[in-house]
Write a structure and sequence with these properties.
The complex is a heterodimer of chains A (294) and B (262). Chain A has 13 helices and no strands. Chain A has 294 residues and is mainly α. Chain A folds into two domains: 45 residues, no CATH class; 231 residues, MetI-like fold. Chain B has two domains: 39 residues, no CATH class; 218 residues, MetI-like (MetI-like fold, Orthogonal Bundle). Classes of the chains: A mainly alpha (294), B mainly alpha (262). At the A-B interface, α1, α2, α4, α5 and α6 of A face α1, α3, α4, α5 and α6 of B.
Chain lengths: 294, 262
Amino acid sequence: MSGARRRLLAWLQRRPAARAWALLGPGMVWLVLFFLLPLVIMAAYSLMPRGTYGGVQPGFTLEHYRRFFDPLYLAILRRTVVWSVGCTVVCLLVGYPVAYLVARAGRWRAVLLFLVVLPFWTSFLVRTFAMIFLLRDGGLVNTVLLRLGLIDAPLTLLYTPFAVLLGLVYGFLPFMILPIYASLEKLDPTLLEAAETLGATPAAGFRRITFPLSLPGVVAGCFLVFIPSMGSFLTADLLGGAKQLMIGNLIQNQFAAARNWPFGSAASFVVTALVLVAVITYLRVREPAADGAR
Amino acid sequence: MGLVAVAVLVYAFLHLPILVLVAFSFNASKFSAEWRGFTLEWYHRLLERADVIHGLEISLVVATASTAISAALGTLLALALARHRFLGRRMVEGFLYVPIVTPEIVVGISLLLLFALLRLPLGVATIVIAHVAFSLSFVVIVVRARLEGMDTSLEEAALILGADEITTFRRVTLPQLWPGVVAGALLAFILSFDDFVITSFVAGSGTSTLPIVVYGMARRNVEPSINAISTIILVVTTAVLYVAERSLVRGERSSPISRRSA
């Protein structure tokens, strides 16, 4: 063992905090430089006047945020929020029964859980394309319906709000099922047995024990679905066509065609702020709930 | 019973679209969604497309580089969080979750602004930088879960028997931790290989990854070649995911510690 190495170890031994920060250092530097700093730049850009050829000019302005109150953009913001809430509600309604079933599936549990996780790791782009393949005029849904004689002409399914909502639910449903499953799985079955012994019907047992105890999972799931739908871009882009813009598409457009970087930054900052508010609310809700469960 | 029906429908909804997509990558008809017989023609055509082959190469280079960096930095971060008490620990923990919940489009444009400000030309390097930034947190979560499940008594024994900390880490901690590192790295690989939104902002014109090429094709028209590429992407990610899962499961079983405490 070399003297230098021994001296280094001895020095680190005396300073536990220095040891921890030596391990943290490289990763934290990366995240600060390539995650945090870019967000700060984005916030700064959103407050600066637009440059002639993209970019910005020195100065300060609130013009880009004011522009958001233009009815055109407010409509896009409203549509994004409505669809994200809609997607969250649908995911909760269909996801809860599935999570409930998986949590009680016995030896099938691992397989069923894997089948929920699998789409999460499957390319979002590929899955969105699968939706196009099913929904387009000459797609499988229309072909089957025509063959069965249920319709005479292809239904317009693609490039409609329906297609976008379906695509969002399809994309984010696993985010709802997994946390609800996690909280249902932790549930102590003796609580339900006790309720039954004391004369509670299964429905009452669910309403008064199972559901309240799964609430942390429900809340987590709602946020995990709502947040990515607010920031989603691909779904509306590929399934919604030109008329069903969401904020993500508006932002992308400011960086691609419109070359209005500061306005794109402002829109992006609004989304980030909404997401942060949601996360902070969630953390506030979760902490006491977690204590209560213990 | 009604519950089972709902679950069957949900599982069908989650998986049928992909299965249909894969099945029709072997369909002989170019335009219609009707089955006209089995063919491998669309796969053969992919081999002739220079943009697809180039995209695949770029994707593999980017995924390999960003995975190596994420796995190394993520493991160090996980070690610090699992094994050390220090000022600001909770803040670091909270901060690590932020990249996971930040919408991809925000990450993408903010990095584009940074690269523009630094006048860094967009290319493989900028894509790798971006991919590490968003996959690092996932590696930390996976590796840390493994660390917290590990018994520290073997490490203590090594230290008592006179091994210094670096030797203990290399000979005792790392072999036990390895399945977690492998699993975290494989997940980082999938995230990188699949990413479209962030990459679309930080990729240069000559450095389109496979998802960017696919997006371009999907926007223009729907042709069976896209089904074929999608199938290839799905096979790659599913295989990688399977290996990751095996690595974690095998790690649990082969560890004498966890068997003893179970």
